[in-house]
Every structure is written in C-alpha cells, then in structure tokens.
Amino acid sequence: MSPSVTVDREGTVTGNTYDKYGSKNPVVKKLMAGFESTLDELLEKASPTSLLDVGCGEGVLTHEWAGRIDGRVVGIDLDDPVLHKEWETRQAPNLEYLVMKAENLPFEDDAFDVASAIEVLEHVPDPAHTVAEMARVASGWLLVSVPREPLWRGLNMARGAYWKELGNTPGHLNHWSKRSFVQLLSKHGEVVEARSPFPWTMLLVRVK
User: Fold this and answer.
1) What is the pTM of this model?
2) With contact defined as beta carbons under 8 Å apart, do 76 and 100 qualify?
3) pLDDT tens-digit map of 133-142
4) Which residue blocks in 47-177 are alpha helix, DSSP H?
C-alpha cells in the first residue's frame, strides 16, 4: 500500500502522509510493532461486539478489527476516491465504510460498544466536539491515539523533516502532551489505560 494523502480546500488531510503500516524501514517497523501491540492489548481489554472507527483512512485497522469482532464494524472518513479504492480491497461481511465528517455522527446514542480514533484527532478542527460525539455513540469505550508532543515534532526535526513548520507534520492542527490528552478525554469518562508506545499517546476510556 502506498501513501494516499489528500488535502481538501479546507486544509483537511485524508489518508497517510507516510505508509507507516507498510514501511520496510527497520526503525519504523519497530516503532509500529510497539504501536500495534499496545493497540491490540487495549482492544482486547475492551472486548467490543461492535465498533465505530472514526477517520478510518485506508481501512487497514478497521478491516483487521472486523475479523475479530462478531458484530457491526463501521469505518468513516471523508470523501476521497483514493480511500474508496483502498476500501474496496478490504471488505468483510460485518464491515461497512461510510463517507462523513465526525462532527455530527448520524448514529443513535450508545450505538456501538467502542468508538475509536487512531491518529485522527490531531487533524480535526474541533477535537473536543468530535470526542463528545464519539462518547455519545459509544456505550462502553473510547479507544484513541495521537502523536505525543512535543516529542513528535522534535523527532521530525531531528530527521530533517518539516523544518519550516518547526517539525509539525502536514495536517496536524492539534497538539497534546500525554497529560493534556488525558485531561481532554477525562471529561467523557474514566481513563482506564494511558499508554505511551513511542512516540504516541494511546488511551482506553470507559465512557460515563
């Protein structure tokens, strides 16, 4: 899978600026192994029977999860033909992809056991509102991850990337330390797990 990043007229990024899931770089592979193993542990702890994946991108994780969950799995993202082609290659009987923004989710309260946003909230214009919507439609858990700042930008600059942007990855509108991200999510429930797979922050939140 190649990177499939798209930027719309509002500056919103869809897809990945870098193919982190398919990279053959040994350093990236090691980092992603830690990321994915931590994510697997938290998903197993939540043990969902249904899941909404907000900002599902190419559907890599969404498709994988659909094979592990008996009930309904929905991935949502913006209208991007490149993403649509990727979705066509990742199908399952209990999986559907929908085109929509996360600001006003057209689902009933408590419609899913888990609502996830993996490397998404740093991109959305109003993350507090998006998290509130996710908490509304989730009956059990929120599973979320974001780049850990200022570490993320520092690492970008150390490798010579995005110097003019002071290390900020294109499309990153929001920046959180682990502490500030926990504070944001704590408004919607109990942060049961706060993990730090380098260089990310990953939380499992039991919704109120």
Assistant:
1) 0.88
2) yes
3) 999 999 999 9
4) 60-66, 81-88, 127-137, 151-158
pLDDT digits (tens, 9 = 90+) for 58-115: 999 999 999 999 999 999 999 999 999 999 999 999 999 999 998 889 999 999 999 9
Please report the sign of the dihedral spanned by the C-alpha atoms of residue 45, residue 42, residue 67, residue 104.
positive
What distance lies between CA 33 and its chain's CA centroid?
16
Helix (H, G, I), strand (E, B) or coil at 153: helix
What is the rounded average pLDDT for all residues in the chain?
Answer: 90
The number of CA neighbours under 13 Å toward the Cβ of 62 is 34
Q: Which residues on adjacent β-strands are paired with residue 108?
A: none
Q: Which CATH class is domain 19-207?
A: alpha beta
Max alpha carbon distance in the chain (Å)? 46
Structure tokens given for 188: 């919607």
